[in-house]
Amino acid sequence: MEIAGEDSFRIRSYRNGATAVEGYPERVEEILRDAEKKVTDIPGIGKGLAAVLAEIVDHGSCERRDHLLEKYPPTALEFLKIQGLGPKGIALIFEHYRISTMDELERLAREQKLRVLPRMGAKLEEKVLKSIAQYRQRAGRFMLNYAESAARELIEYLSAEGGIEKITPAGSLRRGRETVGDLDLLVTGPGAGMALERFIKYPKVEQVLGHGENKASATVGREAFQVDVRALPRESYGAALQYFTGSKDHNVALRTRAVRMGFKLSEYGLFRMEDDARVAGETEEGVYETLGLRWIPPELRENIGEIEWAAEGRLPELVELRQIRGDLHMHTTETDGRASLEEMAEAARGRGYQYIAITDHSKALAMANGLDEKRVVAFARQVREINRRGLGIHIFSGLECDILRDGAMDLAHDALAELDLVIGSVHSHMNLEAAEMTDRLLRALECPHLRVLGHPTGRLLLHRDPFPFDFERIVHEAVKRGVWLEINASPERLDLSANLIRSAKARGARFTISTDAHHPKHLESMHYGVITARRGSLSPADIQNTLPLEQFTGALRRKAAG
DNA sequence: GCCGTTTTCGGCCCGACTGTTTTCAGTCG
Q: CA(A206)–C1'(B22) in Å?
C-alpha cells in the first residue's frame, strides 16, 4: 500500500490492526464464528478492517491484497529492506522498469539505469549495490546471544577510557527481542565524545558508515553487525534511552499520550507545549512518571496495552531471573551432552538452584545414543541413589522423550512411570500438515506420564520456521491434562515465542523455563528464557520452576495422582 | 481506516540527514 501511494493514515491503520490481531489472545476466526463476540472489540479494528478480516478468514486473502499483487510482484516488500530505497523510490522504479527480483534491481543499479529517474543519482546506485550485497550476506538479523555478547565486549572496550557515566544498549536488544537487527549504544558523561572516536578505532570495526559529533555508525565483525554509538548530554539521557529503546509502536502511542496531555516528547526530552519548557528527560522514570505512568519494563514496550496497564497501575509483576529455582531440561554424556550428571549438577548448584532435572534423549534419537527402557529404569534408580547420598542439589530423573510420527511416545509407559519428569518433544517429521501435526500432539498429550511439552513449535531462529499445528487446541488440551508448556531458553529456539506465551497464558496454561543445556555453560542461557517469558507478560506464579523444591515436588506428584 | 472527557469530522508522532537539491522530498531511526 505504501508503494502504491495509498493514504498514509489508512496504511497505519492496517499496520496497527495487524499488530493488534497478532497480539490478541483470541483467534479472529473464533470471534467471527461466535455471535456473542465482536471483532471490533479488538482495539484498532473498526468496521473496515473487520470486513477485511472476514474476507481473509473466508478465503485466505482480501480484495485489496489480491489487487496489489496483480500490480506489484510480491518481492516488492523485499526492496524496502534495501537502504536508500523507500516506497516512493520503489514505485518510481516500477513505473519505469518491469523488474521483480533482487538480481534485476542489482542489474539496474550496475548498468546505471537508476540515475536517469527523477531524484536519483550515482550515489544512490552505489548505496543500493552495497546494500544488496549486505542483504544477501546476512538477511539482516542476529540471535540475541550474539548481539548481547557483542554489546558486552564493546561496552567494556569503551568504558576502559574513563569519563563515561553511563553506557547502555537500547533498541531491540534492551527489549529482549529474539533476534536483533542492529545495536544502539547510548553514552553519556564528559568522555562521551571521545568514546565515539574510540569506537571507530575498535579493532573489530570493519567499515565506518558515518561519524559525526553526536553519533558514529560502523559495522562490526565479519558478519557486518551494525552498531550505532550515540553521545548524549546528561539532561536528555533518559529521554534518549526511552526513545531509542522503542519499540516504534510503543513510542508512537506514548507520544500520542504526551500530545493529549499538552506535552511534546522527543529524544531530547519531554517538553511542555505552551512554553517549550523541559519537564523531564534526565531519567526514563521521569519521562514515564510525568506522563502519569509507572515505569514500563522494556520487554513490554510493544504497544500491546502496556501504556494502559501502566496508567491504571496494573502492569504485570514480571518474573525475574533470581526467582528461578531450578532448570528442568538438560543433557549429559549419556546421550549428546558434553558433561556428566555430576558436572551439570555442580554447575547448577553454583547458580544457586535447589533442583534440576536431567532429561537425556530417548532411543529414537539413535544418533545421540538415546536411552531405551532398560537404561531409563537403571537411570531412575541411579538418581534415587544419588539423592540419598546428596549432591547439595536435588536431582529429578527425567527424559526428553521423542514424540513419534504417529504421536506415540518413544518409550513404553511403564518405563516412563519410573521417572520424575517426562518432557515430550518433536524432533522428526516436522513437515507434516497442520492437521496431522495437531493429531500427533493431541495423542502425545494423552500419555499420562507426560509432564512438559518441550520446545512446542520446533522453530530454530533464522533457520527453521515453527511447524504448523492448531496451537489453541493443543494449549486447551495441555491445560486440561496438567501438561506444562516449555519456554526453551536456548537462544537458537526461544520456543515458545512471546506472542504464543501470551496467548497460552490467556487460556490458563502453566509454563516451565529451561535451558536444554548440553554443556554446563549453557545453563547461563536461562536469562534468555526469562526475558522471553517477561515479553509474554508472565509472573513468577505462571512458572513452575519458580516454586521452592518442596512445592515443586508436590506439583509433580499431583499429575501422578491423576 | 480508526477514534472520541474538545470531536461522529477532522485529526492522526518526531526530528535529522542526505543528495535526488538552490528550497525540499524522501529516507531513516
A: 36
Residue nearest to nucleotide B14 (CA to C1'): A266
Fold of the domain built from segment(s) A8-137: DNA polymerase; domain 1 (1.10.150)
Find the residue closest to B24 using CA and C1' atoms.
A119
**Residue A123: CB less than 7 A from any atom in strand B:** yes
Report the alpha-carbon distance of residue A64 to residue A257 in Å, rounded.
32
Q: In chain A, what are the domain boundaries?
A: 8-137, 142-232, 236-311, 321-560
Out of A195-199, A420-424, A531-535, pick the least confident.
A195-199
For residue A177, which of A24, A298, A322, A19 has the smallest C-alpha distance? A298
Which nucleotide's C1' sits nearest to the alpha carbon of A212?
B17
Distances (CA, A) of A215 to A149, A222, A447: 21, 22, 58
pLDDT (tens digit per residue) in A41-58: 888 899 999 999 999 999
A142-232 placed in CATH 3.40.50.10490 = no
pLDDT digit string, tens, across residues A176-202: 999 998 899 999 999 898 899 999 999
Hits for CB < 7 Å against strand B across A residues 6-35 = 7, 9-10, 12-14, 16-17
- Contact assessment for residue A182 and residue A226, using Cβ atoms and an 8 Å cutoff: yes
User: pTM score, two decimals?
Assistant: 0.82
Section A269-295 average pLDDT: 92
Cell of A478: 495441555
Residue A412's pLDDT band, with cuts at 50, 70 and 90, is very high
Residue A489 CA and nucleotide B3 C1' are separated, in Å, by: 40
